[in-house]
Write a structure and sequence with these properties.
Elements: E1 2-5, E2 8-10, H1 21-29, E3 34-42, E4 45-52, E5 60-61, H2 62-68, E6 72-74, H3 87-101, H4 115-127
Parallel strand pairs: 1-4
Antiparallel strand pairs: 2-6, 3-4, 4-5
Amino acid sequence: FQARLSGVAPSLPGHRWVNGTSKRFLQLVANKPLCAKIIGNKGSSLELELVDTTSDESDVYINERLVLEQYAICQEKPQLTSQISTPAQSVESEYMHKQNSGEHFDKSENHLQDMESYKNDIELIQEK
């Protein structure tokens, strides 16, 4: 599936990204278990808010961090136009079930080492 960060846009005229934006984005997200909140959809692309919850001090909201560091500018967040059924919702549903039953997800940094293991995790959850 395709996805984009919600509520942010390129900061340069002509909808161009600042040099180094991709590199900084990868520094913020690479090899970290992230939480993704589906904010809406634009065509066939999901609009997401990404959050790094690995720090003991505070969560890092990737969308906001890019704005604070002037790699992006704020734009109005989209309204959810339809109910979207996605693997992320299955994960959230599974999380809520485990939370209510007293079970816990593995939040260690080893849980999601790369995108391939993430896909495998999603497939395992969908099989249940």
